[in-house]
Structures are given as C-alpha cells and as structure tokens.
Amino acid sequence: MRILWTEPAAATVRRLSKAVQRKLLARIDLLSDFPDLYPVRQRAPYAGFRYFFLGQWCVSYAMANDTLVILAVFPARRGP
C-alpha cells in the first residue's frame, strides 16, 4: 500500500519530536495493514475521513484505492 502525505501534514510531522515521529510512523505502518481500524469523523471540517489520536495530536487520513493519504496532523485537546 502506498502512503501519501499532504504537504501541511508532512510539515507538521517534521516539527514533532523524534519520539512522537516514531510513534506516529509505527501507527501509520499499522494502518497500511488495517486501514479501517479507526472511526470515520462525523463533523466538519473532516467529515467522512478517518482519524486517530496520538497523545495531543489528531491525525486525519483517507483511503483512495490502494493508497493511504495522510490529510492532516493537528493539535487536539480532548475533554477533561
């Protein structure tokens, strides 16, 4: 399976610590085998895309044929 990154997502990942980058890449490697592992977002702006949390980060992705597209990596604060 091919993995493509949008430029904004790749730029954000380049700014993360090496430890967070390793964890993120390991999770994405898992997605290449199980792309439906995470839920589909129901609300805008990423409605219809899958997502997962990694610490304080949210990663949105989509599948297109045999390609996993990492759409966005952004800070996400979950409730108390």
Summary?
The chain has about 80 residues and is α+β, with helices and mostly antiparallel strands. The chain has 2 helices and 4 strands, in the order E-H-H-E-E-E.
Order of helices and strands: EHHEEE
Which stretches are poorly predicted, pLDDT < 50 over at least 5 residues? none
Mean pLDDT: 92
Question: How many β-strands, per DSSP?
Answer: 4
Biggest sheet, strands in spatial order?
1-4-3-2
Terminal Cα span: 37 Å
Calculate Rg over CA atoms. 12 Å
Shape: globular
Major sheet = 4 strands, mixed
Instruction: Tell me the number of structural domains.
Output: 1
Any idea what the CATH architecture is? 2-Layer Sandwich
Helix content: 25-40%
Helices, by number, come to 2
The fold-level CATH name is YaeB-like fold
Question: How much strand content do the residues show?
Answer: 25-35%
- Helices and strands: which structural class? alpha+beta
The CATH class is identified as Alpha Beta
Q: Regarding quaternary structure, how should these chains be classified?
A: single chain
CATH superfamily: RelE-like
Characterise this structure.
By secondary structure, this protein is of the alpha+beta class. It has a single domain (2-75), classed as 2-Layer Sandwich (YaeB-like fold), CATH 3.30.2310. It has helices at residues 7-15, 18-33; strands at residues 2-5, 50-54, 57-64, 67-75. The protein has a four-stranded mixed β-sheet with strand order 1-4-3-2. A hairpin with a 2-residue loop joins β2 (50-54) and β3. The radius of gyration is 12 Å and the shape is globular. The termini are far apart.
